[in-house]
Amino acid sequence: MLITGVGMGFALPTLVGAAAAALPPHRFATGSAVTTMARRTGALLGVALMVTLLGEPGTADAALTAFRHGWVAAVAALALRKPAAAGIPDGAPVAVRPRSVVPDLPDR
User: Fold this and answer.
1) Worst-scoring range by mean pLDDT, 15-24, 31-40, 97-106?
2) At what angle do helices 60-84 and 28-54 cross, to 10 degrees?
3) CA 43, CA 29: separation in Å to the nearest integer?
4) Which of 19, 6, 80 shows the shortest CA–CA distance to 46?
5) Distance in angstroms (rounded) separating the CA atoms of residues 108 and 42
6) What predicted TM-score, i.e. pTM, was given to this entire model?
């Protein structure tokens, strides 16, 4: 648990920072919120799938079989990540500088 906590502590700020790096300043809050929402939704679906696969085994053999099914599902999800992300272009989009809300004043 300690190693997982340290790994997540290093990975999550980097993930949110990388996702929001190309955003203009006025979109940073929305971009980081969308990234966090997608991460939490993925965690929710992953836990729900694992609970569905594991179920409530009645014997030790059934528990071992369910545990193996959970690992097979995790490996399958890992194998499907690349084809699922194939349509996402490489690299972050170039940030567009927002227009100023104060109009340009003529020189006097």
Assistant:
1) 97-106
2) 150
3) 21
4) 80
5) 57
6) 0.54
